[in-house]
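Build the 3D complex.
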Amino acid sequence: MEDVVIRPLDKVTLRDPILIEGLPGVGNVGKLAADYLRDQLPAKPLATIFSKFFPPQVYVSEAGIIRLVSNDLAYWRAPASAAHDLLILGGDYQGISPEGQYEITERVLDFCGQLGVKEVFTLAGFAQGRIVDQPRVLGAATAASRVDAMKKFNVVFSRNDPGGGLIGASGLFLGLGRLFGMEGVCLMGETSGYFVDPRAAEAVLRVLTQALQLPIDFSALQAKAQEIDRIAQKIHEAEQHVEGGPSPGPPAREDLGYIG
Amino acid sequence: MEDVVIRPLDKVTLRDPILIEGLPGVGNVGKLAADYLRDQLPAKPLATIFSKFFPPQVYVSEAGIIRLVSNDLAYWRAPASAAHDLLILGGDYQGISPEGQYEITERVLDFCGQLGVKEVFTLAGFAQGRIVDQPRVLGAATAASRVDAMKKFNVVFSRNDPGGGLIGASGLFLGLGRLFGMEGVCLMGETSGYFVDPRAAEAVLRVLTQALQLPIDFSALQAKAQEIDRIAQKIHEAEQHVEGGPSPGPPAREDLGYIG
Amino acid sequence: MEDVVIRPLDKVTLRDPILIEGLPGVGNVGKLAADYLRDQLPAKPLATIFSKFFPPQVYVSEAGIIRLVSNDLAYWRAPASAAHDLLILGGDYQGISPEGQYEITERVLDFCGQLGVKEVFTLAGFAQGRIVDQPRVLGAATAASRVDAMKKFNVVFSRNDPGGGLIGASGLFLGLGRLFGMEGVCLMGETSGYFVDPRAAEAVLRVLTQALQLPIDFSALQAKAQEIDRIAQKIHEAEQHVEGGPSPGPPAREDLGYIG
Amino acid sequence: MEDVVIRPLDKVTLRDPILIEGLPGVGNVGKLAADYLRDQLPAKPLATIFSKFFPPQVYVSEAGIIRLVSNDLAYWRAPASAAHDLLILGGDYQGISPEGQYEITERVLDFCGQLGVKEVFTLAGFAQGRIVDQPRVLGAATAASRVDAMKKFNVVFSRNDPGGGLIGASGLFLGLGRLFGMEGVCLMGETSGYFVDPRAAEAVLRVLTQALQLPIDFSALQAKAQEIDRIAQKIHEAEQHVEGGPSPGPPAREDLGYIG
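Done.
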């Protein structure tokens, strides 16, 4: 089989589309943000991406229906007054080997290039290893002009972070994107790195939607963040109890990992 | 060499064949079921599948004859009154890398598609992590119509199981099968996951043979289940003795893994 | 680059050549036997095999000259009275991944098939996990006729050994060889598995040279075996001393691994 | 995508160019030496090499600009009086899998061969596992003539070192280079192997620049070596203090790994 199979679900012509990437990663920040944006706009399904570089796995819905793991492209037609339609890339996994990461990214960029994409935003989390109350949004970009543009939206370009560079899809879509003549920005929401973080996703999305002038309602994402907070609080209390004495079964810490 | 080599042993035209997959996996349930079905019908050899994604290994028979590890397709011509001939896929291994799983599954599906397959049943075990006295058969399917059809045979479509989806051939044959226009069902026999489980295989086969109206005698499979029970019982007694004091060498627990 | 590169060093026409494979493995038995046979006949260089499935490594000679790791084919022209010329395959490594094992074996078999090979002998060690005083030669073959033929030379075809089959080149050359219409035999010299074992290599070679009626002098191989014995004896004595008290630095056990 | 992508940045015709390879490895000796040579000559950018056999990673500059990890070829035009222009290969990584090492090396050699390269110098560190005060330069070569030529520059061709051969790019560029009709030498600076070692890099470069009659100023490299010495000294003192009692936070040992 082809290493990467892109199955079109629709055939569209888009106006100067911008690609927004948000795949699973640190705190699931990028995926949370991209999925939320797709649902709120809402964007429509454009293509499904299968690959032998994903795990050999299907998901089963509550109704018992299977679905092969994939990445997915959706599109959104902007109002006539706006300059750019959008393409949004989400999915279940990043490629599970280095070669797979390169192959999948290159094929998706090639597909998007044919649709006219010249600009890419990648969304990710940045693990701080500590609880982050007010997540900042860190940035990296393909060109100085993009750095300057994003500073206006309070994106932080830090001399030290990310020190070792970016590993995975959010970096690769920009790095390989340059070989396709694309420019772009990576937006990284600060997060602890310990569990999924809708608050960091909101921080990232607020920058993105300001930059692209997208009117998005954040209330559902905030509700999800509060739900996480409640669970985290219960865990915290339970751990206090455990130190002090026995307590009735609280939600396990690992539950947090599945709230997305 | 080709990544996957399919060597035809016979050339046949089949009537609307249904593919039944049962490869090694949890409790060897799928393989036990598929092999038993093949032997009981009996089905005839159709093709041998070699691949560099299997281990570089040969088996040696008691007579000293080597055989390269493989997957194997057999076919069964149904009586004129029945609608579907059968193809049965068994073998020594699943592909040993994720890429290998995809490549092998895709090649076998392509081969079967050319023979007219539009429907797939995959057989597997579902590890419960505890002794299962009366194994239920859990299901997952490609379409709601299949879910409904299988519920009539007491297949359980559970909201929670399998929670993380299915990994391996039984899921992939359905997930990739859809790209070939095939529909299908995965039947999973509940099993402890600790040793090979002919009883779970029987539960799976009973559903399958009811659904496909195949008259199969289960006595040999039941005898094998009783043999496993006897060994498990001896191990249990031996472990009791060990707790109480020394005992003469009982069958080692790992022996169970080789009874197939 | 090509996955496997076969560089011819000579261009020959051979009479019904038989391929003899002996690559590094258990006790280095196969490699010792094949290298010794090649040196004693002596056989002449025919082709060098490079591959990206070998380690990215060069060896450096005592004179400081580098050599890329490889497998190597040599040929021997039998006297006019004999029916078969020989091809001997030796080398530094087997392929270091399962896929690599398949690819290299398939390419070498294809090359040998073009030279007229229809018969293969693979030489290997069989690890018994205990000191073996009088190594037997165990066998496995592609056909019952070969089993019968080898029994005349006291090759043991055991119901239980090798239980799990053969993993690696010695099995694969036979298993894949059948896809090239080749028949063959694997000869496995019993060995402890703890260090290189010229005695097991001699046992294997004695069967092979009887079967092929090759007049080989074994004195140099026996001298090497005695050298190993002496070192093993010293290690044994040193270990006795260590249990009893301090001793002057004896040869380290790992030295044995490098005597080849 | 292509496994290895070579993007030309300039189009040049060179006079009998010699390739000098220095990629990350033991003590980063080869990379330090090649980078220093490139900066001092100075050499000009010729081509950027991307590959799916590198990590899926981008680096971020202090200004926030991303750059996909790569290897890089630079060229230097020698004065009219000299016989050879130079090509210098440096970069962020060696290929991260054995296959990747072979693929990248072969593609770069092919590219260099088209530019007329017939001679290769590879630069590396040789880990001694102990502090080395006066690093010698060990050698390995493709031919006896090269061994003799390098002995004049006090390169040591030792019967025992490197015992197990060379693993990685510095060996492979010579080993595969021979398949392209290239000859060459590997120069290995002795180093502890514990941290980056500009002193070993200087030793290697002194041999190379003598052999190629390149006038290079070593003061910046020596300054870097002294900086490492100072940090090592502080660590040493700090460790003394730790044994004797508490001490204010000294530079961590791992800091040394990042000084390049």
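The radius of gyration of chain A is 19 Å.
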